[in-house]
Amino acid sequence: MYLSCYYGGVTNTDFAVVVWVCRQSSVFRQPRPAADEAILLCRELSRTMGKSTPEDREHGRGVDAHNTVMREIRAERTETHDPHTPTRVWLDENNTPDGVCQSLTIVLNTGGCRRARAGGCAMCGYITGSVEDGSVSHGALLDQLEIALDHEQDNADTPAGLVKIYTSGSFLDEREVPVETRRYIADTFSDRDRIVVESLPDFVTRDKIREFADHGLTTDIAVGLETATDRVRHDCINKKFDFSDFEQACAETTAAASLADGDAGVKAYLLMKPPFLAEPEATADMVSSVRRCADVDGCHTISVNPCNVQRHTMVDELFYEGGYRPPWLWSVAHMLEETADVDAVVVSDPVGHGSDRGAHNCGDCDSRVQKAIKDFDLRQDPDVFDQVSCGCERTWELVLEEETAYNQPLVSWWVWACCGGDENWVFCSVEYRYRSRLSEGESGREWLAFRVQNPASSHYDPAAAIQHCRISPLKRRASTRFVSLVHPQYRSTVRQEKMIIF
Fold first, then answer.
1. Are residues 32 and 95 in the same domain?
2. Of the candidates 214, 233, 168, 162, which has an alpha carbon nearest to the alpha carbon of residue 193?
């Protein structure tokens, strides 16, 4: 029996099933079944087993393993949320195809993304801002809406022309937002100029879009595409739809616009530097993705979101183990410059910029580069980036040349105290702290004294500086960037100042 299975191409793991089936077969009720008949039967069984469903093939591995880990991570959440209060409301200024206008953004507190409850995307922690039982009633959502409108009335001179509504999931998913709530929102904001609602492409249909557009309201569907590269979306992010699904959502939106009184279009959300991509790979992927999205009929705006480290995510786990660094702000600026010629509005809003958990450079230039990015969002003029510069650009350029998926992050951020030196060398002392993933308190402290080349020296080599700093015990990722007291042995030195090298 076993040899028949072996020659028939049946694996050891399926052998028990083969035995059971063969015992039910008339072939094996014969006293001496012919070997060739047994082999033919096993080959047929092998072909049948090979037609198992994707869910069967993924059981215990691949996506199933990822989702299992993600559910364990998300189970650590301890926050609770009031279903009658929105997650967040704010007023801002945004660039649209019709120009710059005031905007009201509302993040409704719903049951959250259904995929996130099953495991979800590697970087997304928005599910932690949703209610625990997975559903919010129509009445509770109306209470949230009223709070948002009161906020606008108290803080704005006139109603915003643009309204953006998010749910940390899919607004068009009726498990999150009931049909009656969706239609009520369409009626409430029918006097505005434009509305943006977010959804996965699965839920985008022309009939749902027309509920807004038939009011004469310009309707934008924001789709979290993340990247135009299917393999990156599937394997790095764990988002299981294809670029063709995004194109279909754009086609549905275009069809709705042709039938309704108001216009409709798609705003693509892209993710810069998902986990497992090195800085040069992530930057190139974003440039390519922006261009591919701009070529899709119906997609008029592309928002590039640099990945930030959110609690209760796989990216958070990688971050604490030293395996992930958010993108450089220089990479964001470079991507915007490279795609400034596309036929679409391209914007970026780096959340948490300048912090360890958000897109950042050296710490000294972060606010200036972020301001240039914001100026570009409003003006779409790449010349704004000519107004900012910093010495850390040299290190960023080295990262683009040398960083790969197997050595990332090539550089991480540590802040040290300068304790004297000469024109070529600086003697430094680092107080290095790290925190445990589940505790906000300090759980470790290390001191290390060493020397590095002086960045002011004409002989300064970023690669040499990196080599000096990529040594134990500095391999672990510091969660806080700071300068503290100089190590006692250096307190008598004359010179002490803050210096950030990367």
1. no
2. 162
Phi, psi of 444 (to 5 degrees): -165, 150
pLDDT of residue 120: 86
Q: Whole-angstrom Cα distance, residue 203 to residue 240? A: 14
Distance CA 486, CA 430 (A): 8
Pair (292, 321) in one structural domain:
yes
Q: Measured between alpha carbons, how far is 444 from 441 in angstroms, rounded to an integer?
A: 9
How far is the C-alpha of 187 from the C-alpha of 407, rounded, in Å?
A: 53
d(CA 100, CA 120): 34
The residue range of the domain holding 204 is 66-391
Q: Are 489 and 449 in contact (CB under 8 A)?
A: yes
Residues 11, 138 within the same domain: no
462 domain residue, yes or no: yes
CATH at 110: 3.20.20.70
pTM for the whole structure? 0.73
**How many angstroms from the chain centroid is the CA of residue 25?**
52
Quick one: which of 496, 414, 418, 412 has its CA closest to 455?
A: 418
Q: What is the pLDDT of residues 79-126, one digit of tens each?
A: 778 899 999 999 999 888 888 999 999 999 998 888 887 788 989 888
Residue 308 sits in the same domain as residue 262: yes
CA dist., res. 220 & res. 265, Å (int): 5
What's the CA gap between 130 and 112, in Å, rounded? 5
pLDDT digits (tens, 9 = 90+) for 466-502: 444 433 333 333 322 222 323 333 333 323 333 333 3
